[in-house]
Amino acid sequence: MTAAANCTTSILANVRLMDGEAADIVMQSDRITGIAAGLADTMPAATRIEGDGLLALPGLVDGHMHLDKTLTGCVWMGHRAGPERISRIEKEKELRDELPPVVERAANLVRCCIAHGTTAIRTHVDVDPDLGLSHVHALAEVREQFAGHVDIQIVAFPQLGVMRCPGTADLLEAGLSEGADLLEGLDPILIDDDLDGQLSALFDIAERKGVGIDIHLHDAGAHGLAEINAVSERAGVAGMAGRVTVSHGFCLGAAADDDFARAVDAMAKAGVSLVTHGGASSPLPAVKALRGRGVRVFAGNDDVRDPWSPFGNGDMLERAMLLAWRSGYRTDDDLAIAFDCASAAGAAVLNIEGHGLAVGSRADLFTVDAETLAEAVAQRAPRDLVFKAGRVVAKGGEFADGA
What we know:
Structural class: alpha/beta
CATH superfamily of the largest domain: Metal-dependent hydrolases
Shape: globular
Strand order of the largest sheet: 6-7-8-9-10-11-12-13
Number of domains: 2
Number of helices: 13
Number of strands: 17
Radius of gyration: 21 Å
CATH topology of the largest domain: TIM Barrel
Mean pLDDT: 94
CATH architecture of the largest domain: Alpha-Beta Barrel
Low-confidence stretches: 1-7
Helix content: 25-40%
Order of helices and strands: EEEHEEEHHEHEHEHEHEHEHEHHHEHEEE
Distance between the termini: 27 Å
CATH class of the largest domain: Alpha Beta
């Protein structure tokens, strides 16, 4: 298929597709309008961008990140918190006044993400009585700064709890009018000691405002399963299929088979998705088993060099590799599942219309020095070109500001 060339038409010439076929990709405005071999020779008026025979893949999607926490671009800071979650929360709170502005740190990480081929991000942003909505405002500024380079979805995140911090629910609701796109919750039993209270507050706001919920659930064992089951039940009653996500759900990685099946089937019935970062310190929910039972599973980097963890560089291809490695994936088909979690599955949950590498899709893609998709995942091959809405936003692993 071809497209008429005009001043907004560009052609990514001489690339390979996931099926191994050579092709040229025509991009007009923000869409892919043609994919076939030899198109570049038929459209001399279009802007030609040489693909050098590299593999072309659809843009990566980071479905779980904390841009306001990152220390990317800062002088190295050793990890200061203890191993407990509460210790990390309190230590991060203590460090706030020592850090450069949120906008500066977040922008540093966003540039890294774009350079690695990420074209969309869902970021969780702290809201509490001390911070108010200052971090939401900061990330809204970052989103505006990088408009046209990457899509950013903001989730208002009650890091210190909802019920244990009076006024937080009101702040979460206010945040939806001042830059946030979704609501967040956090471990209702461990943090708030009030499962029904926290979920009632969140779902009440979500239903009134017509927004989705993405809730951090780290709790293990019976508490974690009770939380997931309660979230699924409320999502089903509220008719919120496709608009509720469980972040982490570590309890599913250690649940007995019957408990796992009941919880996952309830999630699938209610249309609740799960996002995982494949971290090494907690049980990993079985990705293929979840997908096989109808739950959409996607992936995110979570913490990237911040007070919670010194690791990470914002590369979702590396995250796909880690997810595959922890899952014991070795075959090309399994590595393709890991890539899907880092790309198409996240795009679907974030409601990114037209994600993919086909005529009519958004022109969000990247080229990578690999023979196959499996090699790209397994070896975290270098990214050469990154396109957002048909514009080059990174070259040779460096942010290019749409040049």
